[in-house]
Structures are given as C-alpha cells and as structure tokens.
Design brief:
It is built from 10 helices and 10 strands. The protein is of the alpha+beta class. α5 runs antiparallel to α6 and α7 packs across α9.
C-alpha cells in the first residue's frame, strides 16, 4: 500500500520535483504522506469517500478551506478526487497526555470555541450535518446487515441511545470538528492548529467537548473546568446533557471501530480499539445512570 501511495503522490501535478516521500503515521482512516518539493514540505492525504462512515471528500474539502481562511488549519494546496494536499506545519502533534496538561487544555477549549463561533462565517457552500444519534443508528443498521460479530449488543445500545438523545434535549447548532482525537491537534509553539475535517459538520457544541474528554481521558474536575470555560457558566447548567453526549460520543467511536473491523484495509488493530472504547462507554454509562 505504501509503495502504491508513494507512486501516486509522486505523480501529482502540483509538484515539480517531489522527493523524500515518507509515510506519516497516526491516520486510522486515510493514507498520509509527507512530500518535499523544492524547499517546502507538504502533507498528502489519500482517501476516497467512505460511505460506511459517512465521509464525503467534498465536505472535508469545504471545511478544510473554511478552516484555512479562519486561520485554524494549514492551507489547502491542491485537490483532486481521492487526494488532498496541505501545507506541512512544523509543529508538535499532541498525545493524550499533552491534551490533559492544564495550560494546553485551556488553549484547546479556546480553540474549540473559535471553531464553533468563527468557522461558519468562512463557509462558501453547503456542508453536511453530523447528528451523532442518526450517525449511531446508521452504524447499527449497517453492522446488523453485515452480520457483525458484535450484532448481539446492538439492540441494547440503540435502546440506550434513545435515552441519551432525550437527555441531551434541544441544542444550538454550530459547525463542529467532530473528531477531537489528540493527533488532530498541532502546536507550533505559538498557536494551536486543528486538522482532519473529514467528519466535520453542523452539530451540538457538546459533541466536540465530549469527544475531547472521552478521547483523551480527562478527569471529572477537568471536564467541569472545560464546561465552565466554554459556556462561561457553572458546569452544573449543562452537566447532564454533557454526560449524555459523552456517552453518545463513546458509542459512536465504538460503532465506528466495529464498522472498520469489517470494511477497513488499513493496518490497524480495530478489534482492540473496539474493546477499549466499549470499556470506556460502559464506564461512562454507569456514571450517567447515577446522575
């Protein structure tokens, strides 16, 4: 796969002298490469639409360009079907421990707020909605049809999902990133950047906050501080809806991984990732039910 990807990147018309083409680790949906052309480096993302995950590359492109204009993401240099070329940033890729650092967490919450409040003004066309309850129901239906080895747990998860949706209640729509893994946060020493917009779209702000917490192991104290900073209000105001959305986010990550077990060709241990997220989901559900 790497040799084929390298050959494709080398043949792109946006490069005059592509060399030093190397795989870029961390991606669990796309093949990502670094390419040097002259005195500049670029990131080449290779990936077609992924219907089973609701990933549409036109949507990723629209959001990537809007995020570039908003100063949130690196510049889009080139695009063709299945290919997105971005400026390479000299920046540190965060790990989960970096996200949990108190100073970094404050900066990340401020970045999320900027995304939610500023990005929409830079959109020049339609983008998708990412309603996590519909996303999860779609995953469950496909997994059942595909006779997933996890099929027996799906009815219970869907019953729980209805309770979570009722607990979240009405929402304010924002343009969300919807995939706040640590690896999608970069720090160049002066500012934070947010990358990889393939799941971006209109959603509740609670989903990004919940995803940040669940994907990076935030403590309850950190979660409460995050909500207080974002909403400028006591965390109790949004606590139950937030906890419901955290469960929903973890369910989505679990169902995403179950689906990837069947459909992905990437070299990644999706079964272990499913198990890890199912454990996190069960722990979060136990906390939610005690509220």
């Amino acid at each position: 796969m790497s040799e084929t990807a390298i050959a494709r990147a080398a043949a792109l018309g946006c490069f005059s002298d592509p060399r030093d083409i190397t795989p870029l680790g961390g991606g669990i949906t796309n093949v990502n490469l670094i390419v040097r052309d002259g005195d500049r480096r670029f990131v080449v993302r290779l990936g077609d639409d992924i219907p089973e995950h609701g990933v549409m590359r036109w949507n990723e492109l629209a959001l990537s360009r809007a995020a570039e204009r908003a100063g949130l993401s690196p510049a889009v240099v080139y695009q063709e079907p299945g290919v997105l070329v971005l400026d390479f940033l000299e920046a540190k890729t965060f790990g989960e421990a970096d996200v949990r650092e108190p100073e970094n967490l404050q900066r990340i919450v401020a970045l999320i707020s900027r995304v939610h409040h500023d990005l929409g003004a830079h959109l020049t066309g339609p983008v998708l909605a990412f309603w996590p309850f519909q996303v999860n129901r779609t995953y469950a239906a496909r997994l059942s049809a595909d006779r997933s080895p996890h099929s027996e747990v799906l009815p219970g998860l869907m019953n729980t999902l209805s309770d979570l949706e009722a607990a979240v209640g009405p929402v304010d729509l924002v343009v969300g990133h919807n995939d706040l893994l640590a690896a999608n946060l970069l720090d160049d020493g002066d500012k934070l950047w947010l990358i990889d917009w393939e799941y971006g779209g209109f959603n509740s702000p609670l989903f990004d906050l919940a995803g940040l917490a669940s994907n990076n192991g935030l403590t309850e104290l950190q979660e409460r501080a995050m909500l207080e900073q974002y909403f400028d209000a006591r965390p109790e105001t949004n606590w139950r809806a937030y906890k419901a959305m955290k469960c929903t986010s973890l369910m989505r990550e679990t169902l995403w991984s179950m689906t990837s077990e069947i459909h992905s060709d990437l070299d990644f241990d999706y079964a272990a990732y499913t198990s890890e997220n199912m454990d996190r989901l069960n722990a979060a559900l136990s906390e939610f039910r005690e509220l």
